[in-house]
Fold this sequence. Notes:
Blueprint: H1 6-19, H2 22-32, H3 39-67, H4 74-111
Amino acid sequence: MWPLSIALLACSFILIGVCCAYQILAIYKAFTYVREQVAGLTTALANMIIMTFGYAFHTLIGSVVNAMGGADAPQALTYGLAVIPLALFLGSGGFLLLIALEKVKSRKMVIQ
Length: 112
């Protein structure tokens, strides 16, 4: 491993913390796609989907730790926790894709 500066670590933790707030964005996006009468049900369903991904996410972290030598191997914990920023990067890309698709959709509506 290479040494990281305190500033780089602080920026990384802030970025990871912001990306971990994906639940707020996911529930908001689900809420904006439905009528007001079913907003509560939609929010509950979105939360259940988020919990399912959380289960899969934690299972993946545990599987990586076990595959790399178990909890007693220091590098195993490092690799297991490396799943977090990788998954956040993929998830953030998904939200950026949603934003881009909405902009394209809104432009098409303005043109028509």
